[in-house]
Amino acid sequence: MSTKSSKKILSDRNKASEIVAGWKKAGNKVVFTNGCFDLIHAGHVEYLEKASEKGDKLIIGLNSDSSVRNIKGKERPIVNQYARAKVLAALGFVDMVVFFEEDTPLELIMSLKPTTLIKGADYNISNIVGADFVIENGGKVETIELVEGFSTTNIIEKIKRL
Ligand SMILES: Nc1ncnc2c1ncn2[C@@H]1O[C@H](COP(=O)(O)OP(=O)(O)OP(=O)(O)O)[C@@H](O)[C@H]1O
Ligand SMILES: O=P(O)(O)O[C@@H]1O[C@H]([C@H](O)CO)[C@@H](O)[C@H](O)[C@@H]1O
């Protein structure tokens, strides 16, 4: 039996696009962010909650395991995509989690056409994938300040030193 949170997790990009189009037609501002979210930490949660406050619906584009391996190295991810998605989908302010296999979320962003694209302030707007597309389609691109002291890499390094 699927749970309330598991219903938020989608692999089917067309289905996700149909749902987002319905949200937008109903007048919702749809916020999109993306990431690997491996070993989810308090910085991620603070960031996602702030992102959710930028609109009515929050979608997370989640890098698949093969995508994470390509961009962060063969040791990653520590946690598989389904488990990462499960934790994210359990957050009350998250409305959808969609996997993407590519190295970047550009094709997913072009399919979903979000109102607002958000990344952490470790990126500047000029190098955020999808920013040009969202702005050209009348949307907004914003960054959110990082919470000091939290990163998946730091957590891994700390565990290695035990
Ligand atoms: N400490 C933090 N505070 C707020 N946002 C964060 C923090 N760390 C990461 N983010 C944001 O969360 C999203 C996912 O980032 P990511 O999964 O790369 O986390 P990470 O902890 O930086 O991982 P890694 O150390 O492997 O790079 C990105 O948009 C990033 O800007
Ligand atoms: O978890 P990360 O490393 O912050 O997420 C990456 O973000 C990249 C970003 O969107 C580039 O502007 C993206 O290309 C990559 O696929 C990861 O999601």
Automatic annotation (TrEMBL):
GO molecular function: ATP binding; nucleotidyltransferase activity; phosphotransferase activity, alcohol group as acceptor
Source organism of this protein record: Mangrovivirga cuniculi
Species lineage: Bacteria, Pseudomonadati, Bacteroidota, Cytophagia, Cytophagales
Top enzyme class: transferase
GO BP, sorted A to Z: carbohydrate metabolic process
Its EC number(s): 2.7.7.70
Catalytic activity entry: D-glycero-beta-D-manno-heptose 1-phosphate + ATP + H(+) = ADP-D-glycero-beta-D-manno-heptose + diphosphate
Keywords: ATP-binding, Carbohydrate metabolism, Nucleotide-binding, Nucleotidyltransferase, Transferase
NCBIfam families noted in UniProt: cyt_tran_rel, rfaE_dom_II
The protein, known as: D-glycero-beta-D-manno-heptose 1-phosphate adenylyltransferase
UniProt xrefs under SUPFAM superfamilies: Nucleotidylyl transferase
Gene: rfaE2
Location of the Cytidyltransferase-like domain: 32-130
UniProt cross-references to Pfam families, sorted A to Z: CTP_transf_like (PF01467)
